[in-house]
Amino acid sequence: MKRIIPFSKYFIPASIISFSLALFGGIGYFTKGFNLGIDFQAGLLQEVQFAPTAFRLTYDGPGNATISFSRTSLDIIISGATVDEFTHRFPFASYVTQGELVRGLQEIEGITATEPSSASARSEWLIQSAQSSPLLEVQHPFTLHYLTPDASPIRIEDVRAALLPLGSVSVQILGTPEERHFMIRMEDSEFGRGLGGTQADKIMSALEDSFGRGGVSVTRSDYVGSRFARELGNQAIGLLAITLLVILAYCSFRFKLQFALGAVISLIHNMIITIGFIVWIQMEFNTTTIAAIMTILGYTINDTVVVFDRIKETRRIFPDDSFVDVLNRALSETLNRTIITTSTTMLAVMSLYIFTTGGMKDFALALLVGMAVGVYSTIFIASSFVLFYDNKAKIRREKRRLAALAKA
Fold first, then answer.
1. What is the per-residue pLDDT across 109-123, written as a single tens digit (0 to 9) for each?
2. Angle 18-20-243 from CA coordinates, rounded to 5°
3. pLDDT: is 366 or 139 the higher one?
4. Strand 53-59 and strand 111-113: pairing?
5. N or C: lower Cβ tally within 10 Å for the chain?
6. Is the pLDDT of residue 51 over 50?
7. How far is C-alpha 392 from the chain's CA centre?
8. Domain segments of the chain as ranges
9. Distance between CA atoms of residues 186 and 333, nearest Å
10. What is the percent of the chain where pLDDT is above 90?
């Protein structure tokens, strides 16, 4: 016979621990607050890569010339009302070095290319800046950068020091240190007045002052207004509320009200503990974090439904046993399944945490914490509430029985 673990003995201590963790998270919220990402506040998000300028292109020929850049080739598209559209393709396999590529580009009528800073550098090392318009003009040259595989890393501390005069700016490294790729986030209450471009210029100016002119390539630039940030925050709260209501309705239909309430309380418990962890380590709170929380809710309710289903089945098989015995038996029988399933899932998430960076790494870390808390809450929070509700129901039934006897 399988050993039955008396989980019910630990329900009260577990509740005290959960309350303490929730209180600890609340203290963190009021003392440290959320490290809100660009998704939930007005601000500028820029991804930059420290790479020297390769060469610049301009066009003063007939029609318009636009550039299309990929990992394997560079295309120049000539179009317009007075010319026939034609695409000049320069595959990097044929134009191996930047010197060869520049000589090929200069053969196009109207194209002017500056001498490459390193003619022997490979064309496949080129990087396009998001600040350059794909339309080639004389007044605004199109700038291409390049990064060699053996480039020395840029320290994140040096990037932060360069941006320190700008005030509240956060910096995060993307990819490997050799890629010299960083994400910069800058808050600004003035963004609603159209100053996003000014702040982007300030970031570039500060970086170029420290690391040299022409040595910084902007690979991405996003701006979120304050109104959109507020709407996104309200939508996230609404989404979580709707999710909890749907789960409440489903569990009420599948089981009973006390099971549904226990499941929802368990999910709220998981959210509070996970958010408390996020607050204390100052993980960036963005849409990826919301996705992690929603994933945790889905994973936890699956485990909770399995346990509740076993409680329901055990109660049918052992109708004469007390509910606390049924509860302990069901939890003991599903313990191995819960541990094995969660452990194997956590191994996959652990690989994401180890081998990824940036937002995906934060996503994996939040999942790891949420899944661990989810196993704990299914056993000690959801089940304990169901037992508490059942005991209270017995007391109410006994009071009604005694009142009926007194009237008789």
1. 888 888 888 888 899
2. 45
3. 366
4. antiparallel
5. N
6. yes
7. 42
8. 7-40+228-407, 43-224
9. 52
10. 15
285 and 34 Cβ atoms separated by less than 8 Å? yes
CB 331 within 8 A of CB 307: yes
Q: Which two tokens stand for residue 109?
A: 């009528």
CATH superfamily of 7-40+228-407: Multidrug efflux transporter AcrB transmembrane domain (1.20.1640.10)
Q: Which amino acid is at 332?
A: S
Contact 255/68 with Cβ under 8 angstroms? Answer: no
Q: What tokens were used for 68?
A: 């299309």
Q: pLDDT tens digit string along 227-263?
A: 555 676 677 788 888 888 988 898 888 888 889 999 9
- Length of the chain, in residues: 408
3-state secondary structure of 77: strand
CA distance 57 to 213: 17
Q: How far is CA 126 from the centre of its chain?
A: 29
User: What DSSP element (H or E) covers 189?
Assistant: none
389: closest CA among 251, 262, 268, 250?
262
Q: Is 80 left (phi over 0), alpha (psi -120 to 50) or beta?
A: left
Question: Which burial class, exposed, middle or buried, applies to 389 when counting CB atoms under 10 A from its CB (0-12, 13-18, 19+)?
Answer: middle
191 band by pLDDT with thresholds 50, 70 and 90 = very low
Q: What are the E-state strand segments in 209-283?
A: 216-224
Q: At what angle do helices 287-317 and 226-254 cross, to 10 degrees?
A: 10
- The answer, yes or no, to whether residue 99 has pLDDT greater than 80, is yes
* CB neighbour burial string for 212-224, b if at least 16 within 10 angstroms, e if fewer: eeebbbbbebebb
In terms of Cα–Cα distance, which of 295, 262, 365, 380 is closest to 21? 380
Question: Could you identify the residue written with the tokens 């317009």?
Answer: 80
User: What was the pLDDT predicted at 190?
Assistant: 45
The angle that helices 287-317 and 383-407 make with each other, rounded to 10 degrees, is: 50
